[in-house]
Design a protein that fits this description.
The complex is a heterodimer of chains A (747) and B (222). Chain A is built from 26 helices and 28 strands. Chain A is of the alpha+beta class and 747 residues long. In chain A, β14 and β15 form a beta hairpin. The longest helix of chain A is centred in the last third of the chain and has 21 residues. Chain A is globular, with a radius of gyration of 26 Å. Chain B has one domain: Rossmann fold. Chain B contains five helices and eleven strands, in the order βαββαβαββββαβββα. A nine-stranded mixed β-sheet of chain B has the order 2-1-3-4-11-10-9-6-7, with helices on both faces. Chain B is globular, with a radius of gyration of 16 Å. Classes of the chains: A alpha+beta (747), B alpha/beta (222).
Chain lengths: 747, 222
């Protein structure tokens, strides 16, 4: 772009191409307008037609998602989805990616990711009370990985801690496919009274459009376009397009906005997120079927002489666009003044379906709303990888000849089997005083102490297994939902809905499109089986560098409800005199398992399909266990199989001397029993006296229950087969390794 | 009104403290806004809650210590009124000169959120009346700048007057002499980094010891 171009410069095909607008799209715009758009208008199309804002490659697939349900108050399409949790209260939640900015500038990228998702929640009128994150990092051989990890963790922590929203859970995993494309997915959840929900509507002819929050600067201009591009190795040049966050202003904005909503001075509201003022104004007008007139001269700016395209596309953080009636403007301004924030009237709602914007005496934008908000969808070619059958080959013979010791050892060296405590304790997980437990459990549990006498608890979990997604995207999608559900169930919760954050490579790659559509199919199948809706979501394409895409990562955030006062189950070996049982099939599949990846140094094998009917029975089993008040500990078997699950339960035991003895059942394949990862399988521990009751509960629920061992006070992990001890290792030593794998990042 | 809880811009534990004192502690609570300078004479206790007042920009607690309400708090304290500062509130009390010493970045430069074991060092004051010397409490901490610093002379003073109320068993942040919480010479102003309000009806119940001590001191039936 040369310096000579101004807002009013008429655009050309070449200019459109530079801004990432295709020839077809450009011709469509010119034909609809019956004129050539000027540069400011072209910038609007550039942002709004970007994959990030338009979902042009992905939209048609969303029809597949089940979005209905008796709890659904707000499904996909708003700032966040909302579910009814009873007694006049509802929960709003959503997950969003901030992958590209987090690679360019890890601290600010991650911090503003948290800021953005929190605003999505409180623009619905909900007070954010919990957040989670899902982080995927790359190879440690890449020298920037350590810097990225440190920056991302600090960014998330310092933003969330300052705003005062606890980070209660997360998933962190490592895989080389994320080396130049780390994933930072932020989830936030808020609570709202069902009659105090707000939406992004610019309605009421004559109502005023008000800008609130931080001033507008040049940061993040063209951020949405950047998020829709693959990286090349010279990404360093992109730094100015990353936004800078200010959690203190966010906190003020949060309090002022919730106060304004409570006082009834807000008609509609939307966060200025990706593509800033452009997306918020056009989307609010679109939803209300109205038009807007905006004077860009009135926008509070940090820098002088900003051009319209900069004002329109700036992604300066902590800003909101809201609509109020003329008589409520004064009280609205007073509330923001109280919190040391400025509210500025910048325009009004008009009839018709056009957005007009003026700057320094010129009409710089005059566009029909629908042309901007309803971009041309693209039908991308999709095809499975040609080498799928090769990926599904797992050389069992090579595993069979190896000793149990060597296989066990290779798993113990896995970075993906490590204690994330070092990372977790940098987040305030308790502010708000609602966190019942969970940063290290299967799922986090928070209490809603705002409902008076009635105390409801919510459980939440974020999960995805990219190894399985790469090998078999449909099973990957299925499993991400199933895994979350089982995690929630072992904590005693009933799943009520999900949000998704679909991270993929370039949609222009047919294999990526195939991964995408197959994942959506899998997610939908699981949701249908569990009868839970998808209520919000986000797609992040172009997660690839130099043509190498990330492993498909359809991250799922699930929320469940605990609507009773029963105590939560244990998640560790809480005594050295417990029996241990396996609930579910004795063997699990090795295809796509952590064991297989760690042994063959690559992902291989066909993952076994999740039995969704059995998953449902397993959830019922967990519910009954609770209702019958059987004291027990439960932990889901996933990454690393039964071995890693048993070890985690031992590592979290309050007793240093806790030992575990596992007996391999007869006629069971050793590897598949110990390391298999088929969903659903559970490990539970209980006092021996409870066994009969447990067996009955399992048989009533229709799940297999096998007593496979017990805890001891020997501090040893031993495995026995047919009377003979075939393996033994010292648990405190194993715990040391598990504990210290994060030390290289944090002192 | 018995207890006043101040909200500064950026306070984020104010609602937690209000909820805890009302629902669990059974106190009558009034909220105070930092820009006001109200008459505090009807209050028995003023609480400065945790958070990131003014974003912790400049220095933690430095800007909040200049808020209009702080003049009233200082006058209230000088007349013997009880003032409690938790976490960021402790930092504000040090910045405003109501407590000696200062709070610096944690030694490992990271924010730390975890449960810690603290030891009661003195119980001859309104705040720890219902505890025994050397009793251990489990309380959570959540701070990036909780390393208490004081010079040798100041430390001797604290010791001499039994102003050190709590020390860490396993010092998490590098505090001098493991100090977790101190009071002023008159023992009516108390600042601590751990969060008793987060350990009153969740996690441990050890935070109740402080509220019970206060109730006993103030002659409130529990």
């Amino acid at each position: 772009m040369t310096a000579k171009i101004s807002d009013l410069t008429l655009s050309t095909i070449e200019l459109a191409e530079i801004l990432g607008i295709s020839l077809v799209e450009y011709q469509h715009v010119c034909q609809s307008l019956k004129r050539v758009p000027n540069f400011a208008e072209l910038s609007i199309f550039s942002a709004m037609f970007s994959e990030h804002c338009s979902y042009k490659s992905s939209k048609k697939f969303f029809k597949r998602f089940p979005t209905q349900g008796k709890r659904v108050i707000q499904g996909p399409g708003e700032n966040a989805g909302i579910l009814d949790i009873g007694h006049g209260w509802a929960v709003a939640f959503k997950m969003e990616s901030h992958n590209h900015p987090s690679f360019i500038e890890p601290y600010q990228g991650a911090a503003t990711g948290v800021g953005g998702i929190l605003r999505d929640i409180f623009t619905m009128g909900a007070r954010p009370i919990a957040s989670m994150n899902a982080l995927c990092f790359g190879s440690l051989d890449f020298e920037r990985t350590a810097t990225i990890i440190k920056g991302v963790v600090k960014g998330i922590g310092e933003y969330g801690n300052c705003v005062g929203v606890p980070t209660v859970a997360g998933q962190t995993l490592f895989h080389s496919s994320y080396t130049r494309n780390p994933l930072v997915n932020a989830f936030a959840l808020g609570i709202v009274k069902t009659d105090e929900i707000y939406r992004g509507y610019a309605k009421g002819i004559g109502n005023l459009v008000v800008y609130v929050g931080a001033k507008t600067g040049r940061d993040g201009v063209h951020g949405a376009t950047m998020a829709s591009k693959e990286f090349s190795s010279d990404e360093e040049l992109e730094r100015p397009t990353v936004q800078v966050g200010d959690p203190f202003t966010e906190k003020l904005l949060l309090e002022a906005t919730l106060e304004a909503m409570k006082s009834g001075v807000v008609v509609g509201i939307q966060d200025m997120g990706a593509a800033g003022l452009t997306s918020s104004s056009f989307e609010m007008a679109h939803r209300a079927n109205s038009g807007l007139e905006i004077s860009l001269d009135k926008i509070p700016t940090r820098e002088p002489e900003m051009a319209a395209f900069e004002l329109l596309l700036s992604e300066s953080q902590e800003r909101m666009l809201l609509v109020t009636s003329p008589e409520k403007l004064k009280p609205l301004k007073d509330i923001y003044e109280k919190w040391d924030l400025h509210a500025e009237e910048i325009g009004k709602v008009v009839s018709g379906n056009r957005v007009k914007m003026t700057l320094r005496g010129n009409t710089v934008v005059d566009l029909p709303v629908d042309l901007v908000t309803e971009p041309l969808l693209t039908d991308r070619p999709s095809s499975p990888p040609v080498d799928l059958k090769q990926r599904w080959f797992l050389d069992r013979n090579k595993m069979l000849v190896a000793t149990l010791n060597s296989k066990f050892q290779s798993l113990m060296e896995e970075l993906n089997f490590s204690n994330p405590q070092r990372l977790i304790e940098q987040y305030d997980s308790m502010v708000g005083n609602r966190t019942v437990g969970g940063t290290q459990d299967d799922a986090a549990v928070i209490r809603i102490r705002d409902m008076g006498e009635r105390e409801v608890r919510l459980a939440m979990k974020a999960d995805c297994n990219p190894r399985v997604c790469w090998l078999w995207p449909r099973e990957g999608g299925r499993r991400a939902v199933a895994e979350c559900a089982i995690n929630l169930a072992v904590r005693g919760a009933e799943p009520i809905g999900i949000t998704d954050c679909l991270n993929f490579g370039s949609p222009e790659n047919p294999e990526v499109m195939w991964q995408f559509s197959e994942s959506i199919e899998g997610i939908s199948e699981s949701c249908e089986a569990l009868k839970i809706p998808v209520i919000s979501g986000n797609v992040s394409f172009y997660n690839e560098t130099d043509g190498k895409p990330i492993y498909p990562t359809p991250m799922i955030g699930m929320v469940g409800i605990i609507d009773d006062k029963l105590p939560l189950p244990h998640s560790n070996f809480y005594s050295t005199q417990l029996e241990i049982a396996l609930v579910g099939p004795a063997e699990g599949g090795l295809g796509g398992s952590l064991m297989a990846s760690s042994w063959f140094k690559r992902e291989c094998g066909q993952p076994e399909e999740t039995d969704l009917a059995m998953l449902e029975r397993m959830l019922r089993f967990c519910q009954r266990l609770r209702k019958r008040k059987i004291i027990h500990a439960a932990h889901d078997i996933s990454d690393g199989g039964l071995v890693c699950t048993a070890l985690e339960m031992a590592f979290h035991s309050p007793f240093e001397c806790t030992g575990v003895e596992i007996l391999i059942p007869q006629e069971t394949d050793l590897d598949r029993f110990l390391f298999g990862e088929t969903i659903p399988r559970l490990l539970i521990a209980y006092e021996p006296i409870e066994r009969v009751d447990l067996e009955n509960t399992a048989s009533q629920a229709g799940v297999k229950f096998t007593h496979i061992g017990n805890t001891t006070d020997s501090s040893l992990f031993t495995i026995r087969q047919g009377g003979a001890q075939i393996f033994s290792s010292n648990i405190p030593d194993l715990k040391k390794g598990w504990n210290h794998r994060w030390d290289k990042f944090f002192k | 009104m018995k207890v006043g809880v101040i909200t500064f811009p950026g306070s984020n534990c104010d609602s937690d403290v209000v909820d805890c004192l009302q629902r669990v502690g059974g106190f009558e609570v009034g909220r105070l806004w930092h820009k006001e300078s109200p008459d505090l004479s009807s209050f028995k206790l003023i609480v400065l809650p945790g958070g990131f007042s003014y974003g912790d920009y400049l220095r933690c607690g430095a800007m909040a210590s200049c808020s209009p309400i702080m003049d009233k708090v200082k006058a209230f304290a000088s007349q013997g009124g009880l003032v409690l500062g938790i976490c960021n509130g402790f930092q504000i009390l040090c910045e405003s000169g109501l407590l000696p010493g200062a709070l610096a970045r944690n030694l490992n430069l990271n924010f730390i959120c975890t449960d810690v074991s603290v030891q009661i060092e003195a119980s001859d004051n309104p705040w720890t009346l219902k505890t025994e010397k050397h009793q251990l409490l489990s309380l959570p901490i959540a701070h990036g700048e909780g390393r208490y610093i004081i010079d040798d002379q100041g430390y001797e003073e604290l010791l001499k007057n039994s102003q050190i109320l709590m020390t860490y068993r396993n010092n998490p942040n590098g505090s001098t002499h493991n100090i977790a919480g101190i009071c002023n010479r008159n023992k009516n102003v108390f600042g601590l980094m751990p969060h008793p309000e987060r350990a009153s009806d969740l996690r441990s119940r050890d935070g109740l010891k402080i509220w019970d001590s206060l109730k006993t001191y103030l002659g409130i039936q529990s």
